UniProtKB/TrEMBL annotation:
Keywords: Coiled coil, Cytoplasm, Endosome, Membrane, Protein transport, Transport. GO terms for cellular component: cytoplasmic side of plasma membrane; cytosol; ESCRT III complex; late endosome membrane; multivesicular body. PANTHER family: CHARGED MULTIVESICULAR BODY PROTEIN (PTHR22761), CHARGED MULTIVESICULAR BODY PROTEIN 4C (PTHR22761:SF77). Pfam families: Snf7. This is CHM4C protein. The gene is Chmp4c. Coiled coil: none annotated. Residues 9-21 have a biased composition (Gly residues). It comes from Emberiza fucata. It is a peripheral membrane protein. Residues 1-25 are annotated as: Disordered.
Amino acid sequence: MSKISKFFKGGGSAGSKGRGGPSPQEALARLRETEEMLSKKQEYLETRIERELAVARQHGTKNKRAALQALKRKKRYEKQLNQIDGTLSTIEFQREALENSHTNTEVLKNMGYAAQAMKKVHENMDLNKIDDLMQDITEQQDVAQEISDAISNRAAFGDEFDE
């Protein structure tokens, strides 16, 4: 389907109509297309400005009327070029904002997935059981330390006997 027929039929895909608006990817694609179109128009106007300037120089003092007409057209083209520059800036700002919003949405969605995963992992953990386990570990470490201390102390076999 051509771009013109899409435009007159409401544009977009059938899937985007049911959701209440275009997806971020569709909107970004359209913004990029618009940026491309405006950039091409900018290039076209810049060449037209240069041509009109060349015509004005060519006629110079020989044909002032033709030179003035060329300068007027050049001025019109420059005005259009300035408008396109402003429009491009606005579109770039909107595209960047949409990209940032899309990124933030993806980050938030992934953080939600991570939170659900953590919840699932912690489902089988009971705080009282963990506390009891930690106490058991501490007790066993104390027992191991006492055993280690008992083994590492020098035996005073000769000192304990009384003559």
